[in-house]
Amino acid sequence: MARVAFLGLGVMGYPMAGHLKNGGGHDVTVYNRTAAKAEAWVAQHGGALGRTPAEAAAGKEFIFACVGNDNDLRQVTLGPDGAFHAMTSGAVFIDNTTASAEVARELSAEAGKLGFGALDAPVSGGQAGAENGALTVMVGGAEADFEKARPVIAAYAKMVGLMGPAGSGQLTKMINQICIAGLVQGLAEGIHFGKQAGLDIEKVIDVISKGAAGSWQMENRSKTMNAGKYDFGFAVDWMRKDLGIVLDEADRNGAKLPVTALVDQFYKDVQGMGGRRWDTSSLLARLEK
Ligand code: NAP
User: Which residues of the chain have pLDDT under 50?
Assistant: First the structure.
């Protein structure tokens, strides 16, 4: 049993912290900017409440965060009441936010100066993965910190991999999002074409999903897309944040991402249609406009 803090009890963080407490059996202290959520978490799971990130982090061995973006992350770590002011030598900071590789390297360097470890550890698997404790975790950082944290991370993960030094977890998550973007557009175009051609889409998917066109997105989203339902998880606003991070990084490393850049603009159209909170499969709605 480890002494753990969890900062950020959103769609992802709330159940992840729950798995650390219940599945992992750890001693968990939570912090959330909107205190009511942290109070609800403590009422549901027990554990303790920190009124600031620093208060939650004080005396803990592992400090997890899952907030929105780079700036949110800087605020909960380096801000006036940030966790880094309270963390002590030998502790490990584990960041589950999807953020830039740059901020991961910045926090790792800062942690190094202060004498504790930092891992960037973004996740894949969505809300369902968080609720079922079955996330994929892509980690960047030092091997010794990774080995210390791995058994604790295991409470909410089905797959945990160390990808390389600080920033490598975020770079891996970027590849994850690049692969998803083009794939979802292809699936949307296939369904759109099938409808225009007057075919039974469910029948089409039943057959082609067993062949070379099959994918997680096809298995899990094609039926809901065909029904025009777009409230199944990862929101378009979050995807645009992620693709922005990807395209910035590609500017730096020279990678050519023509399809990713195009799909990012398609998601911008979806936002303009009122779909900011729709899930990422809503690319079909844009084609049907
Ligand atoms: P969410 O439900 O919007 O939760 C965001 C959390 O961050 C909330 O607890 C929020 O506090 C906190 N927060 C935001 N800005 C903050 C700040 N400046 N200071 C302190 N706390 C702050 O988001 P989510 O869906 O859990 O996603 C969290 C991260 O995981 C994002 O980076 C997202 O891209 C990534 N992710 C999400 C999914 C998914 O399917 N949802 C999948 C993989 C990865 P309040 O309660 O006060 O707003």
Answer: none
| Cβ proximity of 146 and 162 under 8 Å | yes
Domain 171-288: top CATH class:
mainly alpha
What pTM value is reported for the model? 0.96
Length of the chain: 289
* Nearest ligand 1 atom, CA 72: 18
Two tokens at 202? 């469910």
Task: Output the pLDDT for position 233.
Answer: 75
Concerning whether 210 is annotated as a catalytic residue, the answer is: no
Half-sphere exposure of 193 (CA within 13 A, CB side): 8
- For residues 8 and 17, give the distance between their C-alpha atoms in angstroms, rounded to a whole number: 9
Report the distance separating Cα 56 and Cα 242, nearest Å: 28
Per-residue CA distances from 141 to 16, 17, 47, 265 (Å): 21, 22, 28, 33
CA of 60 to the centre of ligand 1 (A): 22
pLDDT in tens, 189-214: 999 999 999 999 999 999 999 999 99
Alpha carbon distance 206, 154 (integer Å): 34
Which residues' Cβ are closer than 6 Å to ligand 1? 8-13, 32-34, 37, 66-68, 72, 75-76, 97-98, 123-124, 126-127, 233-234, 238
Q: Which residues contact 239 (CB under 8 A, 6 or more apart)?
A: 177, 181, 267, 280
Q: What fold characterizes domain 3-164? A: Rossmann fold (3.40.50)
Q: Can you read off the two tokens belonging to residue 46?
A: 């027990």
Tell me how far the alpha carbon of residue 67 lies from the centroid of ligand 1, in angstroms.
4
Give the phi and the psi of residue 65 in degrees, each rounded to 5: -135, 145
List the chain domain ranges. Answer: 3-164, 171-288
